[in-house]
Design goal:
Number of domains of chain A: 1
Number of helices of chain A: 22
Number of strands of chain A: 2
Number of domains of chain B: 2
Low-confidence stretches of chain A: 227-231, 292-298
Mean pLDDT of chain A: 78
Low-confidence stretches of chain B: 70-85
Radius of gyration of chain A: 22 Å
Helix content of chain B: over 70%
Mean pLDDT of chain B: 81
Strand content of chain A: under 5%
Oligomer: heterodimer
Structural class of chain B: mainly alpha
Order of helices and strands of chain B: HHHHHHHH
Distance between the termini of chain B: 70 Å
Number of helices of chain B: 8
Amino acid sequence: MIEGLLIGLNTVLVPENLLLVLSGCAIGTLIGMLPGLGPISAIALMIPVTYGFDPASGMILLAGVYYGAIFGGSTSSILINAPGVAGTVATAFDGYPLARSGFAGKALAIAAYSSFVGGTLAALFLVLSAPWLSDIALGFQSADYFLLMLLGLTLVSAFASRGEYLKALVMTCLGLMLATVGTDLTAGVQRFTFGRSDLIDGISFLVLAMGTFALSEAIMMALPGKNADMFDLQSRLRTTNMAVSRCEAAELAPVVGRSSVLGFLIGTLPGAGATIASFLAYGAERRLAPSSHHNTASSESDLVNKPFGEGNIRGLAAPESANNAACTGSFVPLLTLGIPGSGTTAVLLGALIAYGIQPGPRLFIDEPEVFWAVIVSMYVGNVFLLVLNLPLIPWIARLLTIPRNYLVPIIVFFSTMGVYLVSFNTFDIQLMVIIACIAVFLRKLNFPMAPLLLGFILGGMLEDNLRRAMTLSDGSWSFLWDRPLTMSLTVITVAVLTSPLMRLLWQRIRT
Amino acid sequence: MKYITSDRLSGFVFILLSAAYGYFAQQIPLDFFSETEVFNARSLPTLIAIFGVAIGLTLLVSQATPATRIAAQEETGADEERPNFAYGPLLLISLIFCYAWLLPLAGFLLSTSGFLWLSFLTMGERRWIRMILVAVALPFAFQWLISSLGIYLDPGYFGSMMNGASA
């Protein structure tokens, strides 16, 4: 291991490669900040640029872009509630209310620190545990994956505000429905396309994410009554304070530690990735928060005591550290098994294959400089991100000081281009506008949007794993309880799903 | 009428949506072999439809009646938010539709400049010089950035015609 680390350090710590890490982080942050352009788009855009480099340098640049884009996505989530990627949706839950309350600088600083610690701890875990963690992930069966995803979906109740549990479930269900639109790849039949060729490949994640978040946010900004709020936000941003008090740091330390471990473990599971990690970390912290944390508070010193979803800094630090740790964790199955842990690592897999490298167990032996250079560049990238982003925070935070008359059309323009540049199909723009209109209406009725996105993202994987599990068990549902792991996951899922309903029923009986 | 609330109406609409989804799920064409499989293309949509109807029904029956809601509102001082739509957002939405339609025809630069200028105008901006400068500079800067990354943006039908005429 030491020898491997030395190989990695030797490869990364040369001026050219250090410059590549720095450039990757800077480009990734800028692209990731633009609503609609997440790490997948950023890496896909940069792959042609890396064709002239040797494989290790190419991967170093792409790893930097990955981290930069994740951090940039968090920045747009916090400032304008427009997560370009699903992994930063949970960041917006408390990050955006914090920005609205005038703590945009603090929110961005906490995000930077949490990302740094999460990424650093995960890089350490990766070095120490890559070989045996990949064995554990390899041992997971379809039934385990199915139940893990089902648990992730039922945990949406943890993300919803009080009294909005059923609405969150409605949105999850709607997300699952939208995920089934398109061609069923196993049977080769079209579902819910209604004869439209534009829907054969299904609805793009980007179209749904942009429609429900960035574009609907822009339309909401254009609604009457939002002017004063935006003006207020802009004036607060001008006097934003980045300092994190010692008390807040002490409160956040265990949160970041727990979330980093959780994020890394979830990230190592193929198919799970940063999205589930950030949602689970947020849900876990929300449940772990003492009851006093549900009091309403307004002063800066009470940010740890604010209710979750209204600007609690624990609710911001947890998903931020978890998603960064999961990004590192997702490299475990990619580098050791050749299985991408997320959409982004799938693009990286494509890049590795394009360089003529076959990821898998032999990567350790055949291409040690690529394997260890990627690992070391992760840590170096995290250092650069902290060094690069913290001093830039006051400038980044001024993004919303652009007048509303300009900001709204510019958000609309970037959302539209983010969707258009992926497919070059104007139907996607029209679909995005329709989704945004429905989203605005639903948001006015207090329906949460994040469960819709989570249901949509997990829908395809959920179906694949359920199909495999059902086929292996010959149509029997016994796979839900025939092993201790599946039994435990089933019990937890049922408990999470039914407990709020039982509480609701009990309240109805009492009244 | 007093029992109709926005939440109950949402629950009812979702039941209808789930029922329609379930109906169309049963229309998914299956070949003989798929029909005999334990899990086919209809299986998950059918499960989702059943779950959707169940959730919709729970939403329909579990919401507070208007009397208890009014009492809760009096207690918390909260007022039910009503959807408030105006011409500005509607115009903006119409502009995006027109922009999508014009992109392949007028090309990126022309359609984007026009879209941005009209959007600024719709949002209430009246500083003409600044507005026009931004509407023209942003698409050019964006195209330069994109083309430096090796992505080609279609000049559109009119752009091609103009290029043809100048050649």
